[in-house]
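User: Predict ABC transporter ATP-binding protein's structure from this.
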Amino acid sequence: MSPVLEVRDLAVSFGTREGAVRAVDGVSLTVKRGEVLGLVGESGSGKSVTGLSIMGLIDAPGRITAGSIKFEGRELVGLPEKELRTLRGRRIAMIFQDPMTTLNPVLRVDTQMIEAIRAHEAVSEKAARDRAARALARVGIPSPEERLQSYPHQFSGGMRQRVAIAIALLHGPALLVADEPTTALDVTIQAQILAEVQQLCAETGTALVWVTHDLAVVAGLADRIAVMYAGRIVEDGPVDGVLDSPRHPYTAGLIGSVPSRNRRGSPLAQIPGMTPSLANLPPGCAFAPRCPRADAACRIEAPPLLAETGGRAFRCIHPLTAEGVAA
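Assistant:
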């Protein structure tokens, strides 16, 4: 089965006073039909920029400087904006962290949803309204016919995010990019939305890229996981394999810092140091200054992404084994 999304050697740079900063550097990933890919990393790792690049939403001073983004075999890099608009919202959709990025505060929900449908399909207003009501019901909003007449401010934060998800799913997109859409929600609402999104992907075959810093979310949602650090993917593979037996020290550090992994009453484990500035990355491996396994070789040349059996890949010259020691 050919992948729905295939990203190869993607590079994205932003112009700053200090010169060009490469926010994404050589990222490659694939997502198949019905598959959920968790794109994980700390703030500033480049995961959100990767998601925006897939959508064609990188604006000046940022630009894609290298690489390929293929959607259902069609190259998106360099595609005219008019053609991107025919895909965006219909075949490719995005859910943002803040639902008010999607929703217009001065328009009723029915106006926004009907407009989103009729922008891509020649259907009657009644047919569009019926579909909008079904979409709200599908994401768990009660009395959808009545709630269509509400304004965004009349919904709670969790309900607004459900509306944003419903809008993203109106056309049954082949690819959905979700940029930390449950971060600001309470745990109960978060769990409900995750279960609904997972079910929708399974039923419709939608490929999902879920951008997050929360490994607990990825553990219960994703099929595969790609871990980003300083603009690069440092580990990639099936979610169970990566979380149970990480190969890269950074992945191990992220897993170890999850509160549930720490003994009650003990200080939380954390990765020492700070994420490096993309404008001034250290030579060699970008993680070396924070890595307890780093040696002189790590500070000379950036390691390539090494593939191994089982669909695993990692970017480290001193990887961990299943026993948690250097290979």
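The mean pLDDT is 89.
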